[in-house]
Write a structure and sequence with these properties.
Length: 156
């Protein structure tokens, strides 16, 4: 059974470690460099434990951690939105089991309002997921450049 669990401050190190693996995977799309310690920068991590407008979820299936999602209300388009999907991933071993669709639907159901979701055109899985999931809401589509697309929609 799929479950969303809020990340507690005591789980900051776990989230940091998962973000490192996620950021490494994303180097196939983005050219983010490692620091001198072999880590990737994620400047907003601490704010997910101090800013009440931000939410960090761990995604579990039958008690097994299979992914995470980070939400905030800060728009990359400078729009007034209620929710932005800052980061979302299902770990590679658990993909192709429809967990991403189910988890994303749970998040959208739990967080009503005006949404912004950005994906890179080269990330075919994210492109398929977010376009299919948001289609019923008839999103506005914004192209930031040749590579990044932003979907803005209301799910009230």
């Amino acid at each position: 059974m799929l479950q969303l669990k809020n990340a507690a401050p005591s789980e900051r190190e776990l989230l940091w470690n998962l973000i490192q693996k996620y950021m490494y995977e994303m180097t196939s799309i983005y050219n983010d460099p490692m620091d001198e310690n072999g880590n990737y920068s994620y400047e907003y991590l601490d704010e997910y434990f101090t800013d009440p407008k931000r939410t960090a979820y761990f995604i579990f299936n039958d008690g097994v951690l299979i992914g995470f999602a980070l939400l905030c209300p800060y728009s990359c388009l400078d729009l007034k939105v209620d929710h932005t999907m800052a980061e979302f991933t299902i770990f590679p071993a658990f993909r192709r089991n429809h967990f991403a669709v189910a988890a994303a639907k749970m998040i959208l159901e739990k967080h009503k309002g005006k949404w912004e979701i950005k994906y890179n055109e080269r990330n075919s899985g994210a492109k398929r997921l977010w376009n299919a999931l948001t289609e019923p809401y008839k999103p506005q589509v914004f192209k930031l450049d040749d590579e990044e697309t932003v979907l803005v929609f209301n799910n009230l």
